[in-house]
Amino acid sequence: MNAEILVNITPQETRVAIIEQGAVQELHIERSQNRGIVGNVYLGKVTRVLPGMQSAFVDIGLDKAAFLHVADLWIPKKSQSDALTPIEKVVFEGQTILVQVLKDPLGTKGARLSTHISIAGRNVVFLPQEDDHTIGISQKIDEPTARDQLKQRFQALLNQSSTGSYILRTSAEDAQNDELINDLAYLNATWKKIKDGSVRLPAPSLLYQDLNLAERVLRDLATEATAQIRIDSTENFQKLTEFAKNFTPNQIGKLVLYRGERPLFDSYDTEGEINRALGRRVDLKSGGYLMIDQTESMTTIDVNTGSFVGARTFDDTVYKTNLEAAQTIARQLRLRNLGGIIIIDFIDMNSKEHQEAVLEELQKCLSRDRTRTSINPFSSLGLVEMTRKRTRESLAHQLCEPCEVCQGKGQVKTPQSICYDILREVLREHRQFNPKEFRIVASADVIDRFLEEESNHLAQLIEFIGKPIRLQAESSFHQEQYDIVLS
Predict the structure, then answer these.
(1) pLDDT for 286-327, tens place per residue?
(2) How far apart are CA 441 and CA 10, in angstroms?
(3) Cα 109 from Cα 132, distance rounded (Å)
(4) Cα 115 from Cα 72, distance rounded (Å)
(5) Strand 41-50 with 55-59, pairing
(6) Euclidean distance between CA atoms 178 and 166, whole angstroms
(7) CA 374 from chain center: how many Å?
(8) Residue 13, class by beta-carbon neighbours within 10 Å (0-12 exposed, 13-18 middle, 19+ buried)?
(9) What are phi and psi of 289, to 5 degrees?
């Protein structure tokens, strides 16, 4: 299956779209002012140790303290025992510590850290702290003979002074020896720079920053199935070509400078896909639709038949809608980068065979997802519970913010409700302050309501308190915003 990668680069941001089967399957966005920090290595300072949670907070120079759990502490194998050493015996407040970011800050949570440093190359992951000099092989290389041959070939490339351990990525199987040697040189030079900085710089300090998004396209996102990588910036095309020469020479032939008059992201309706991926509703070709709601704790997906009545029986209609929904859900999870707990409410199916077929279709479609997923069978309530590893912010969290009017509720009070709130507030203010008159400042819709449907209630209040009430429409106020001025 040929795939294509579109790389749109501007000074303020880089956007990457992965195209498979003629449609956008994944979107990656990195803004120059707030790049993700996963993979970055910092010299941090421990600010607090919490024995009850077996964790510590570490200052790495960000707004929020980062989080380090005892399970993410690296302890030399010769010092390890079957039980985890309590964190308070290893970490103390004020300690300077070398850490790497496992997860970006998400919402109110700080970044998650590890003291087990790993540096990724195109074909090799370097674990510099490990002293047993092991060579691991990606599980995706499952042929025993191929694993043994690759391990022996890589072992021959290591010199006697090599330290640490290595994990060979899937791409290493097809890599030439000189590519592996280039990887080793890059990884060792990077680790030397980190060690030198940890001795020379104060805490907190950034010692190593992972590659930018455009470079990670060549290292992580491009595969054998990738036919073209189209880039719309001449300057960055040259930079990526130079990067590919040094680290990913097998990708050079795939790089194409896009010179079209239309913007690159107009191809495959990529801009439209981004806008649709920010909405709750996703229409299915059959006439059914999904409703996707993302909350702090989980994502829920509701499947509906909508206008689809094309099958012979109702059971067939439900089954076909659910099958199409399973395919669309798998794509939407990648497109929106939804992670954590996901609950899918498929339309109820009476047939056990239909349930198994829908679940199988969902698993098949999710097998193309590079992010790890885990799916449970249908529950007694007919729900499918699954998880998708959360490594970075979702598309909505990257591009959007809560509505300043509804603050994320997704709804606002009606003008009628606001009018009644104001009437109660005026009465309260009258009893407390007893001013000469009141002036209500509110949105035009609320003022109109007072002048029309609620005019009788306003007149009754004026008569009751014996004070004039003036109305003022303020165009800059949103529907729930109002002010009561006393004079």
Answers:
(1) 889 999 998 888 999 999 987 766 657 888 889 999 999 999
(2) 44
(3) 35
(4) 6
(5) antiparallel
(6) 17
(7) 17
(8) middle
(9) -160, 160
